[in-house]
């Protein structure tokens, strides 16, 4: 197989079927869908507690979180799932010859601009996912699969807002 | 009968092991579909690459139909599946903030971890941002608590709300998705990009 073929991606509809089957497996075994931002939250809460136990002790939010997530990150379903994502992504990238340290960006911007905007996007996504009770995986995708009204609303507003602002952000991408 | 963890067919540790294995499948499929590339993901919003639309809706429909069939076969008890609660305002505002993050950052949390696994450094700063964003939320929670809990609607499903069966709604969703796939294929021909 030449290099060009080996780096090709899977047909997107086939990718969708496989992703749907992964999601179905999660429902069948664990009674829940996929997620991502929740794993970050679990690690954040544990880190804050390590840095300042007294602050966690005196803050209602952390106490409520800990009450509903006993056991910490190592007993958190989403944390193990996201560790798996790192492994699965790495295996796929290795098989396809895509492992490479790289900053991917439009030729119209520098790597530095890309890194800064990625960080800004991350801050907004991190905050929004907590407010919206889940991100694209946990709220939109998994929510839609169980026909949750909230899942459809979150999905519509994530993609709708991104579409509405695409014109203003075009230099970043095209 | 599933879900296996709820019926205690598997232990808590097996459940965590399954989370890890499911995660491997999740990461593998995301990477294989091209979700480790921010410019491929962002292509959705400029029409040159609608992979996100195709993968996302196909996956949601396959899982939805799978749940429906499993339920009909008696393999899974749908009443024990977690349904995301609907708090109207936080879903709207949170979704809109995530949308801004998506178009500026080019990733969502799951795809950022996937991209990091193959060495994308922009995914690393995105994840750094995620941590900051989550801390802003947890630390600033008292300020946004009201919005977070506003308009609690419980756990309605969209088909119940409209008053149709799960299967009928599924059929409508499939037809809508087919229509969107058609538009997506058209957009990719209309706004092609050779290299990105």
Number of helices of chain A: 10
Summarize the amount of helix of chain A as a percent range.
over 70%
- As a whole number of angstroms, the C-alpha radius of gyration of chain A is 19 Å
The number of strands of chain A is 0
Strand elements of chain B, count = 0
Distance between the termini of chain B: 46 Å
Strand content of chain A: under 5%
* Mean pLDDT across residues of chain A: 94
Calculate Rg of chain B over CA atoms: 19 Å
Protein name (chain B): YeeE/YedE family protein
InterPro entries (chain B): Sulf_transp_TsuA/YedE
Transmembrane segments (chain B): 13-30, 51-76, 88-116, 123-144, 164-183
Organism (chain B): Carboxylicivirga marina
Report on this structure.
Chain A contains ten helices and no strands. Chain A is an all-alpha fold and 174 residues long. Chain A folds into two domains: 101 residues, no CATH class; 73 residues, no CATH class. Chain B is mainly alpha-helical and 196 residues long. Chain B contains nine helices and no strands. Chain B is globular. The mean pLDDT of chain B is 96.
List the helices and strands and how they pair.
The complex is a heterodimer of chains A (174) and B (196).
Chain A: H1 3-6, H2 12-30, H3 37-51, H4 53-58, H5 60-68, H6 77-95, H7 111-131, H8 136-145, H9 149-165, H10 170-173
Chain B: H1 12-32, H2 38-42, H3 51-72, H4 88-105, H5 109-117, H6 121-139, H7 141-149, H8 158-162, H9 166-190
Helix pairs in contact in B: 1-5, 3-9, 5-6
Summary tags:
heterodimer, A: 174 residues, mainly alpha, 2 domains, 10 helices, 0% strand, disordered N terminus, B: 196 residues, 68% helix, globular
Task: Give the gist of this structure.
The complex is a heterodimer of chains A (174) and B (196). With 174 residues, chain A is mostly helical.
């Amino acid at each position: 197989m030449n290099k060009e073929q080996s780096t090709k991606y899977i047909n997107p509809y086939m990718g969708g079927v496989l992703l749907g089957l992964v999601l179905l497996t999660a429902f069948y075994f664990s009674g829940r869908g996929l997620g991502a931002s929740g794993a970050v939250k679990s690690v954040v809460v544990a880190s804050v507690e390590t840095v300042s136990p007294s602050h966690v002790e005196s803050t209602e939010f952390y106490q409520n979180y800990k009450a509903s997530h006993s056991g910490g990150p190592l007993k958190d379903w989403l944390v193990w799932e996201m560790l798996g994502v790192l492994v699965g992504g790495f295996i796929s990238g290795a098989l396809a010859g895509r492992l490479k340290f790289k900053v991917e960006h439009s030729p119209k911007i520098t790597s530095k601009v890309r890194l800064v905007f990625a960080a800004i996007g991350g801050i907004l996504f991190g905050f929004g996912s907590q407010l919206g009770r889940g991100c694209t995986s946990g709220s939109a995708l998994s929510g839609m699969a169980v026909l949750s009204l909230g899942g459809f609303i979150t999905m519509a507003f994530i993609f709708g807002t991104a579409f509405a602002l695409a014109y203003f952000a075009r230099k970043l991408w095209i | 009968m599933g879900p296996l963890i709820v019926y205690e067919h598997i232990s808590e540790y097996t459940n965590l092991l399954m989370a890890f294995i499911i995660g491997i499948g999740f990461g593998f499929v995301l990477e294989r579909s091209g979700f480790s590339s921010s410019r491929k993901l962002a292509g959705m919003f400029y029409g040159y690459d609608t992979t996100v639309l195709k993968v996302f809706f196909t996956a949601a429909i396959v899982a939805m139909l799978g749940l429906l069939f499993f339920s009909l076969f008696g393999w899974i008890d749908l009443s024990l599946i977690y349904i995301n609660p609907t708090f109207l305002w936080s879903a709207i505002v949170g979704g809109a903030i995530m949308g801004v993050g998506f178009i500026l950052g080019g990733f969502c949390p799951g795809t950022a971890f996937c991209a990091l696994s193959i060495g994308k450094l922009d995914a690393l700063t995105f994840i750094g941002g995620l941590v900051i964003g989550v801390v802003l939320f947890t630390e600033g929670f008292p300020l946004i608590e009201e919005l977070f809990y506003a308009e609690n609607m419980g756990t309605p499903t969209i088909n119940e709300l409209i008053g149709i069966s799960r299967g009928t709604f599924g059929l409508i969703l499939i037809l809508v998705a087919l229509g969107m796939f058609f538009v997506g294929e058209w957009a990719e021909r209309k706004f092609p990009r050779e290299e990105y």
